[in-house]
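DM from R.C. (forwarded with permission)

"hey, sorry to bug you on a friday — could you get me a structure for this? deadline for the figure draft is monday and I only need the backbone to look sensible"
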Amino acid sequence: MIPDEDLHRHAMENIEQADALLLGRVTYEMMEAGWRRPAPAGARPDWMEPFARTIDAAKKYVVSSTLTQVDWNAELVRGDLGTAVQQLKRESGKGLLVGGVTLPLALAELGLIDEYEFVVQPRLAGHGPTLFAGLSKLIDLKLVSRLEFGSGAVAMRYEPRR
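My reply, with the result:
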C-alpha cells in the first residue's frame, strides 16, 4: 500500500465500523509490529496516528495453529475454522473485518465472507501475494460501492451474488 492520509482514514473508518478484526498469524504479527503503541517519536507522520490509535484499540481474533498466546487486545481462534467464525459472526453486532491473504481465501472457500473490499493502488508491483490464488470455485460478486481517492487508488466494495 502506498502510504496516504485518505486511505488510512478509510481503513480507520472500516475498523471503527466492525466489532473486531479477524486476522491470520502473519497479518497479526505484521500489524502488531507496525501499529502497536506507543511508537517511537517520529516513527510515522502525525496523520497516521488516528489509524494507529484505532487499530491498537480494536478487538482482534487471531487464527493460528502455531501461536500459543497473543496479546495486543487479541484472542486466539482454535479448532475448526468454519465453526469458530460462524460463532464469532453470531456474537458480532456490526461484523468482523478480515485482512490478509491466506485467511480470506479459507473463508471464501467456506462461504463465510458477506462483503469484499478491494483497494486497487495506482502501482504495478510484479511480485507479492496473489489474492484468492487457488480458489476452488467461482464466486460471482455484485458491486455495491466505489470510492476514489486523490492518490488514484480506488476502493471497491462487493457482495457475493447468492
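R.C.: lifesaver. The helical segments are 5-16, 25-35, 49-57, 81-91, 102-109.
me: no worries. The mean pLDDT is 93.
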